[in-house]
Amino acid sequence: MWNFSYVGPSLLVTLVFLAYYFTVPRLRIRCNRTFLLLVVTDLAVLAADVVSSLADEAYASLPRGLLWFWNGLFFVLFLLRAYLFYLMTLDALGFRRQPNPAKRLLGAAVLVVSELFVLSSPFTGAVFYIDDLGYHRGAFYDIIYYCFLFYILLTCFTVFRHRSQVSRYELVSTVAFNAILLAGIVIRFLFPRYLVMGMFCQLAIIVIFLSFENPQIYLSGRNGVFNTNGLRAVLEETIPRRPYRLLALAVKNYTEMRGIYGGEQLDRGMVLVGNYLKTAFPRQQVFYLRSGWFVVLGDGKMDTAAARQTILERFRSSWSSKNVELYLEVSFAAVSSGSGITVADKLLNHLLVSLEQAAQPDFETGAVIELDNLRKMERELDIKRSLERSLEREEVEIYLQPLIEGRSRTLAGAEVLCRIRDSAGNVVPPALFIPLAEKSGHINLLGEQVFEQACRFVRDHDLEAMGLRWLNVNLSPVQCMRTDLSRRYTAILERYAVPPERIHLEITEQSVSDNSMVEQQIEELKARGFLFSLDDYGSGYSNLTRVKRYPFFNIKLDMEVVWDYFRDRDELLPSLVRAFKDMDYSVTAEGIETSAMADVMVDIGCDFLQGYYFAQPLPIDRFVEKYAAPV
Ligand code: C2E
Ligand code: MG
Ligand code: MG
Predict the structure, then answer these.
(1) Domain 379-625 belongs to what architecture?
(2) Distance 408 CA to ligand 3 centre (A)
(3) What is the 484 CA–ligand 2 centroid distance (Å)?
């Protein structure tokens, strides 16, 4: 009475799938596990369907318990399969990575209720019952259709709701396999005696396989290890869930090697390396990214240092097969869950940048770039980019901090201090970007833009009304390496019609020691009328003789020196100040944070005071507001 003609081919298709599935390398990701579970469940449904149908036909000669069991098992698995199709979509599209507990509960609740109906059938006869005349459908038989229908609709609804996160291809594939399942359900509903549902499920599985599960998506064509897509898929799943350790290696001078050995030889070499890594690290997953870059990914317990030694040891000998004999060198990059990085794509980007660096000829062979302080690297990168952007768009801001005349406590000058903003719009202090700018050479442009803004400030404001006599602008020693510095600064002064004595240049004590270039530039600038302050005195090792060589008129005591004096008052600072005064320098004390500090510094002879007690560095408008009327 049952028609089994569709069952045989369905079974065969599923078996072929399983065989194929186990022969190609698979990533250890949830999507693959769910797919396997789906295929196995599908096989079990088919088997249970056939056995229960045969048992139902031979009901008279079989014990009733056996009929209950096989029919019950079929329904349980049938419903489970519907649920697994739904889970498969979630996993394939990565939706289960951001689990929403409420939705998960709703997703599983319909399955649980339907299964309860099935399991209660021996007592209630809800879905089916067995009596003297054999197997019969129960009053709630249709619940199996509703359950299946629910999961088809839920899948479509979920994908449509998140359609911005999925590609068109994924959307079409998902709709396609659900349409196939729907057709299966309808036909089963109309022709229940034909066991065709299995065949429709197989078609749906084929669509899923071609769209989401094809192992070629994650395999590197060259050497049978996983590729960058595979690494991304694994990292996306691993990062938020489990501790991991990752060791990456870069074959050094890969492009050059291609030239020496030829592309084909080197490709074969990469296959050898890939195979070696797979056998040397069977518990870990191995990936090939590109151009001689491999990744070994392990759990939180992997000993990366030992793995590095093992690999280095192997690379001491050649890589040879039939007609290949390659000598290769490697360097490494390593990162672990301790890096605190939460996005797979970001980690991959950093990894690629590091591997690029590790592969350079001047990078020490066998050395490793640790990426665990990624946050720091990211912050640095952001600051670097923000600096470049600020310079390009001329958005560097200047802040002004008052320099107060000690005796009268009135405003005398102000120090110009620059600020930039990071990508989030927050102010970045100069300690973070000045050293970067000095290293990259951006300091020349930065210094010039700050200087120009200072001139603009002088031109556009009534300094007299504020009691402001001059501005101090910082000059980096790196700027002194340019021989046209004085010409450029003078040109800016002239453009804004600012007399040079309005701008004092501050140069730090450290940068003047034994630097003839700095000495020469200072002389040239002085010849053009600029005045110089020695900044941060006491932070370096300058002796007074050296200071005297330079044309300073003002010495700024470093705030550490000032604070030291208040921690432990000795005669050193007062006599130093006296010595400076005797040599006709004016003296400024930095870091004045209290009224008492101000008093004491004036008493020991300082002429000017600078510090938070008077004001922090202020944006121009706030500074003007504060000092619009003379203090
Ligand atoms: P600096 O030239 O010694 O500037 C004084 C620094 O001390 C400023 O830090 C200021 O905010 C801080 N400061 C002032 N009074 C107090 C106080 O009472 N307590 C404390 N704790 N700190 C105080 P800022 O603005 O962060 O600048 C740091 C350094 O960056 C400057 O040190 C200077 O060397 C450099 N810099 C700033 N702007 C420029 C620039 O346009 N060009 C160059 N080459 N360097 C600059
Ligand atoms: Mg300064
Ligand atoms: Mg200073």
Answers:
(1) Alpha-Beta Barrel (3.20)
(2) 22
(3) 22
**What's the CA-to-centroid distance between 140 and ligand 3, angstroms?**
85
The C-alpha atoms of residue 284 and residue 127 are separated, in whole angstroms, by 47
Specify the ligand 1 atom closest to the Cα of 430.
Answer: 30
Q: Which residues of 216-245 are buried (b: 16+ CB within 10 A; e: fewer)?
A: eebbbeebebbbbebbbbbbbbbbeeeebb
**C-alpha atoms less than 13 angstroms from C-alpha of 460 in its C-beta half-sphere:** 9
Which residue's CA is the nearest one to ligand 1's atom 35? 430
> Residue 273, Cα to own-chain centre: how many angstroms?
28
CATH annotation of 7-216 = 1.20.1070.10
390-443 per-position pLDDT tens digit: 999 999 999 999 999 999 999 999 999 999 999 999 999 999 999 999 999 999
Would the CB of 450 count as within 6 Å of ligand 1? Answer: yes
Domain locations in the chain as residue ranges: 7-216, 228-373, 379-625
CA distance 42 to 374: 45
Express each pLDDT in 442-496 by its tens digit.
999 999 999 999 999 999 999 999 999 999 999 999 999 999 999 999 999 999 9
From the candidate CATH numbers 1.10.10.10, 3.20.10.10, 3.40.50.11540, 3.30.70.270, the one assigned to the domain spanning 228-373: 3.30.70.270
